[in-house]
Amino acid sequence: MSRNPAPEIHRPPPPRTWALWWALGGVVVAVLLALMVGARVAGVAFAVHLGVLGAIRLALPAPGPLGISARSRLFDVAFLWLGAAGIALMALTADNL
């Protein structure tokens, strides 16, 4: 047997999962709003939620929080903000909601 101590194992920090739960919570809130209040309010709330997620992705350093970072920062922010703008536009201009 060797008398040398075992080398220390350096493990990467665990991923930050709070953003994943935040994103899921926003979807649940939007669904509940759609059921209780209406589709227009739920669409606007979901668009605001996507905008906030985009701002969070823009502000936090790489690699970004788990759940809202898929590609590069620019791609993720553009995807979230364009999605927010599209959903808000459809929710506010659609007839018979």
List its traits.
mainly alpha; 97 residues
Q: How would you concisely characterize the structure shown here?
A:
With 97 residues, the chain is mainly α.
Question: Could you characterize the architecture of this molecule?
Answer:
The chain has helices at residues 18-36, 39-59, 73-93. With 97 residues, it is mainly alpha-helical.
**Strand residue content:** under 5%
Count of DSSP helices?
3
Structural class: mainly alpha
What general form does the structure show? elongated
Number of strands: 0
Give a quick account of the main beta sheet: strands, pairing sense, barrel closure. Answer: none
Following the backbone from N to C, one meets helices and strands in this order, namely HHH
| Distance, first to last CA | 75 Å
Helix content: 55-70%
Unreliable stretches (pLDDT < 50, length at least 5) are: none
Rounded mean pLDDT score: 89
Q: From the alpha-carbon coordinates, what is the Rg to the nearest angstrom?
A: 20 Å
Fold topology:
Blueprint: H1 18-36, H2 39-59, H3 73-93
